[in-house]
Each structure stands twice: as C-alpha cells, then as structure tokens.
Design a protein that fits this description.
This protein is of the alpha/beta class. Helices cover 38% and strands 18% of the residues. The chain folds into three domains: 191 residues, Rossmann fold (3-Layer(aba) Sandwich), CATH 3.40.50.970; 154 residues, Rossmann fold (3-Layer(aba) Sandwich), CATH 3.40.50; 183 residues, Thiamin diphosphate (ThDP)-binding fold, Pyr/PP domains (Rossmann fold). The two termini are 35 Å apart. Bound molecules: thiamine diphosphate (TPP) and magnesium ion.
Amino acid sequence: MSDASATASTNPDTTVSGSGGVHALSACRAFGVETMWTLSGGHVFPLYDAAVRPVAPTPPMRLIDVRHEQSAVFAAEATAKLTRQPGLAVLTAGPGVTNGVSAVTSALFNGSPVLVLGGRAPASRWGAGSLQEFDHPPVLAPVTKSATTAGTLEAIPGAVADALRTATAAHRGPAFVDLPLDAVFGVADLAAPDSSPATRPAPDDDDLTTVARVLADAQRPVLVLGSDVWADGAEHAARHLVEELSIPVVMNGMGRGVVAPSSPLNATRVRGAAFKAADLVVVVGTPLDFRLGFGVFGGGDGAAPARVVHLADAPDGIARHVELAASAAGDLSAVLAGILDRLPRRPETKAWVEHLADLAVGATQKVEAELASEGADGTIHPARVYGALRQVLDPDAVVIGDGGDFVSYAGRLVDSHRPGCWLDPGPFGCLGTGLGYTMAARVARPDAQVALMLGDGAAGFSLMDVDTLVRHKLPAVIVVGNNGIWGLEKHPMQFLYGYDVAAELQPGLGYDQVVTALGGAGETVSDAAELEPALRRAFEQSRDASLPYCVNVLLDPSVAYPRSSNLA
Ligand SMILES: Cc1ncc(C[n+]2csc(CCOP(=O)(O)OP(=O)(O)O)c2C)c(N)n1
Ligand SMILES: [Mg+2]
C-alpha cells in the first residue's frame, strides 16, 4: 500500500471542515468535477453525504447511481471525453472496485481523465479480515496513471488533488485513490489542497522547425486528426492549419468532425487511397496503432513508403515502433500553430487535393447506394439503418457505438459535423460502454440528440442500466442492431474454420420490450420502410416523455461487415 500523504501539498488560505467525504469532494470540485457516478456501498456513504448535504456555500454535487459499477466508470469516462473536465466514479470496497476494472482500462487506452474513488476496509483493523478487505492499488496500478491509498483522514485532500492533477496532465488517463472506512468517516478541519492544474512544457523549437521543413517538402501530404486533438482543445488550431495549408485530412475518434463532411479537404472517406498514394502522413493526437496500419503508409507498386510525422500531446505518446521523419510533443494547439509559423513555404497541394476530392465524390456516391442496401428476402441490411438515421440526426447529435459489425457500419456511414460528438470504445474495444456512455452524454449535452447504436450482443452487458436512464429522467434513443448473433465473431469463425460455435443469440429477441419493462418505451422494426418513421417517433417521444426509447431493428444475419484491416 502506498501512502499519498507524503506528496500532498496544501493551500493554507482555505480551511474545509467536515468528513473525509467532504474533503474528497471539495478537492474534486476544485478540478471541475460536477457529477458523481456510483453504485451504493456503505464504505462510501460519507462521499454521498458530502454530495447531497454540502456545507454552504458549496452547492450539492449531482449524484447518479447506476446498476453496475462498470457503467459508473464508463459514464465517468464519457463525461471526461465530452466535457473535457475530469470524470468521477465512486465505487464501494472490494467487488465494487474490481467490477470497474475493464472500464478503468478503457479510460487508460483512451487517455481519458477519470478519477475513481474507492471505498476500503478500515486501516485500523487491516489484516483482521473485515468485510471486503482487499488491497486495491496493486490491481489498479497497471491500468491507471496512479493508484494510491489515502491512509489517514488528513491525507485525503492531498491524495485526491494529486490524483486529479495526474489524471488531467497530458497524456491524460485514469487515477485511483481508495479511502479507508475509518479515514473517510472521520471529521476534521483541514487546509484545502493545492488545486493548481498540471503545467506542461512548451514543444521543442527544433522539433517544430524540422516538422515544418518536412511538411513544406511534401507533395502529397495527408493530415490525420485523432481524439487528442479534441481532448487537448486543439480543434481550432487544427482547422486553421488545414485551411491555411489546404491539406487533405483523415479524422478518427473524437477528432471526427473537426473538418466538415462536405469539405473538399475531408479525405476520411477515401483514406485508403489517400494513405496509399501519400508521400507524407502527419498523424496528430492518436497513436500509430492497428487503426492506422501500425504507422506504415503507402509503399505499394514499388513506390517508396510515405514519410511519417507523429505529433502527440506528451513525449511518451510519440511512436517508437516506426521510423519517423520528425516528431513533436506538447500542447497540440501550440504544436500546430508553431509548425505553421515555422513553415518555410506552403506545400504545393492543389492537384493532390483535387485528385482526392474527385475520388471522394465517387466514394460518396457508393455510400449513398450502400445506405439504401437491402438484406436478403426483404430483411433489413444494417447499412439501411444508417440511411434512415442520417435523415433524422441533427448536426450536434451525440452518436455512441457499442457492438461489433453494427458499429463498424456506424463508424463509416455516420457523418460527424462537429468534433466531440462521436463516442466509440476506443482501442481497448470493450463491449458494454453503451449505457454508461449514453447517460453521460445526456448529462453533458442536455439539449442534443443522443443516439446509442447497440449490437444485440453488446446489449447484454449494460441494458439493465436503462433503469438508470428512467430513474434519473435521462432521455435517449437506443437503436438495437438485432441480427441474433455475435456477428463480428460468427462471420470470422465461419471464414477461418468453416463452422462456428458460441456465436448465436436468440433471434428476434424483444429488446424494446426489455426497455419498456424497465420503464422506457420502444418498438420493433422489421420493414426498412418503417425505419425512418420509427426513429422520428423515438427522438420525439423520448424527448417529450424524458424517457429512453428503443428501436429494436431486426437485421439480416447473413450480412458480414466487409473488413480489411489487420487488428493484430
Ligand atoms: C467485453 C468484450 N467481450 C468480448 C468481446 C469480443 N467481441 C468483439 S465484437 C463481438 C460481437 C458483438 O456482437 P453484437 O454486439 O451483437 O454486434 P454484431 O457484430 O452482431 O453487429 C464480440 C463478442 C469484446 N470486444 N469485448
Ligand atoms: Mg449481433
């Protein structure tokens, strides 16, 4: 057990009086936390008490209690992703904390600033076998940026503030602190901790100059904008660079929507052709992982591979597994503006932009045809759901994907008009984000449409949390892609083995009835012509009644997503 008290620094100007819960939440507030996501357990009662009965003038903290701890942590993660403020989950000791581990790991993979506060058996009786006596930090350490125990009441404010500073420092990620029962139930007057935000070094001048030179020499450059462009608040700097240089852009994750879908510079739809023919790929704010071909671009037909530049929000994010032409790390707005300032001349991109824009026109026509696809024997093709969805979505809608093939279609067929409106599980690929991400999206964007695109398999991980949406009056539309199978596993297993096992679900299951039984509303759609009217009803009724509404779409199970990428 590591004791965080040694590193705590204090702010002696302010004294906070109350329980360990009051001290913990007071530190959270100082870092911008507004909502607590939790599931009840006696070890964490003082945190609830501090949330709902704060000492004036502190306002109450919104507390949303869920039906599974992983939903609480996924909700905290989506809060961080959407608001760019830290998300908070409070988990009770033992199984409460361990139930959150997959979601904490997702936050680590996604660079999401999440604080998890755990209950903990009392320090004074440690080793005697209290209920749920379990030393959490060794379990949490590999999946967080820091995992500590605030060993005493006096250590709580500093430990919580330090954890939040660690979580919010680039490259962001989750942090964990557990609070022994006897510490968190204790009461004392304590100095408020230092709540100054993490400082970050400016990007290296020489690095920026080298990147600028490489960029100026390029003839067929492509810029990739990933989630950290949004997380780092660099979307304006990125758009400015793109427009100033007239450089084709490919976007992924929360970076989707930085450049409008209709822009001639948006090469996302023709990313394969763009990467193949590029002589330079500049990747900003996302790792060079399987989603980007592990950072190897072009090189087909005997041509030289593209040069690669990696720009990250922190030095440890720069890829080490590929040979880079240049790299820079730091505040991404400063990095992008610094490159523009140092550019010896503009790269000549006119013909390249026109070429990709021409290809994009053809690709868009193909997508239009795909959105009208039909399944076998009059069944619904998954792409058709997105054809209907496009007709009813507002530009600021938050679209969430939790599932296999059904969500792969979403990734390709849903247009993002603004950054920070798309939530996928990220590279950890954990099914079960759906309901947690949805409740957080409703809280973060009270007036926007929220649409969860949910595979029928994925639904099993979190559907019970529809109850949370109902109890807390959090309206959202849940579209279940119901093909009766674990499609993304069944089709590949058939391909590899000629048969499949462990890949069937109940066909035609009434997920809308489950949602209705939990207090929401819904309907099943089996005719493609009914999709758009059903989705319109869903958005209207869920908004008017402040309820979740499920459109359970029966899909053709024979459709396999056309997949070409190498995942491993
Ligand atoms: C927690 C977790 N368990 C298992 C998997 C493996 N997995 C990835 S996609 C998938 C199938 C998803 O099925 P469904 O949600 O019905 O979507 P479909 O592919 O049928 O459209 C599975 C089981 C995973 N990614 N995460
Ligand atoms: Mg399925």
